[in-house]
Amino acid sequence: MDVLEPREEQVDELVAEFGDWAAGRGLEVDLFVVEAALDARVPHVEVLLLEWFPRKATLERPHWPGVLTTLHHWADFLTATRGDEEWNGGELHAAIDRSAPEFLARMADERNYGPAKFWATRMIEHGVDPEDEDDVRDFLLAVQAGAVEYDEDVLAEIMRRHADGGGADLLLPEFGGGAPGPLPPVPVPPDGELAALAEATGVVTRLRTLVAWVGAGRAVTTTKHLLVADARELAVLLGLDEPGAERARGSEDLPEVSLLVAWARAVRLVRVVKGRLVAVKSAAGLLDRPVELWWRAFEAYGGLGPEACAPASRHEAPSPLGLALREVLLDLWLGLYPAGGAPVPVELLAESAHHAVSAWFEVGGLPAGAREVMWRRDFAAVLGALAVLGVVELAVSADAEEHAEIIELSGNDDPDLTLARLTPLGRWAVQRALRAEGFDAPSVEEFAQFPLEEVCEAVEPCAPEVAEPVLAVWVAARDAGEAAAELAAFCVDGPSAEVRLLAWAALEHAGAPGAEQARRLRSAGVVPTEWPAVAS
Description:
Largest sheet: 3 strands, antiparallel
Distance between the termini: 62 Å
Structural class: mainly alpha
Helix content: 55-70%
Shape: flat
Low-confidence stretches: 165-180, 363-367, 528-536
Strand content: under 5%
Number of helices: 26
Strand order of the largest sheet: 1-3-2
Mean pLDDT: 79
């Protein structure tokens, strides 16, 4: 029963009616609580108390019991005024009482906060008005500079939950959920190919060039940026700028240079000592180990934070996307990895990542249009850096059918038509990263040990270039005769036409026993004529 959603009345009218009703009876209520309940539009009071309020409502502790009291009065109001419209005050009272202890416990545990509430709470602690854009900008700059203390472990847990969807399965385990199954098998390059792949990436070339260019040292500003002339010189050396190009302000106007310097510092190839950027002598040998150098750059990128998203001006607050960069990257990995190297529309990746970290953009009162422009700009900067890193390849779709499909899937009439795909090196790195985050990302070889039904179900949505090698490895890990017999049985008894088709196609990897089983199935009339032919 949707006990918290208004029918045809406007929210403001309903809240005003409740306020008059309570005042006429001398009852003290907090109208914010009812406004929140109606605006949240959750169907059950338990969800409101155990999820919505802990995650979104910034209330001082003395006001927490007032939430429960107000909702009890709200239940009485509904019973008194809408008792003939399926409102059940008794059920509401019981649900509020059941939820009360857990509500108070969750309100006290900051891990249940959403990102916006976490930072709004920090702002209030520091006397910052969350609605004052200038105050918020100064506060975020202080956060970036490390001048604001906060519990990083708590924030990491908040962002993990938010990146996973922030839904009831995380905050309210009793409502469902559970551990996800394994991610689809994705082919990754063998170890022997990694050095050549890393050597060919733009980031390895740029980091080596930077260290060589730094030489005995280069002067930096108080904000640890290169001087304008040096930044231009390096940009030209890297092929990022034209010789003689004029820049109105400073090296911040060359975002790729600023990013590279910050990246090199994070990898610990260079550091700032007494106002000069100098090479770290102990890291010299790392430059000759391309795989290790590349992996360090991959790991360091997520920690760059706002430095990964250069602001349009020095007066702009740090990018909310940059503050949540690790969570954005995790969402990207989960969007790209299951595709196994097939292209994915950037429009869909951007939409998913924006949803995962949208609460960061609720802080500071920026207009919706400005937030969208900032998001698109910063997301494009992240994808560009990942292309330099060699994790993704980007290309603009020129296919009209693809355009129509992207428009349909995104609901955007003017979408970004860029496609992104993981490179072989990117698949190798993302698999390692997802495993480190606790995701089950089995290798193709590990999938070979799975039961045939699980393998076929896992590769069913994959592109043929992913599915075929997985099934080939599965067959190779078994006696050819036994594998062929199991595949043949699955061609008959498999749970769906799609997985039966996969089993049929896999018979060709079982050699002579596979060909024999294919002939037997054909003679029995089991195989439809449109199924792919298996060599006989």
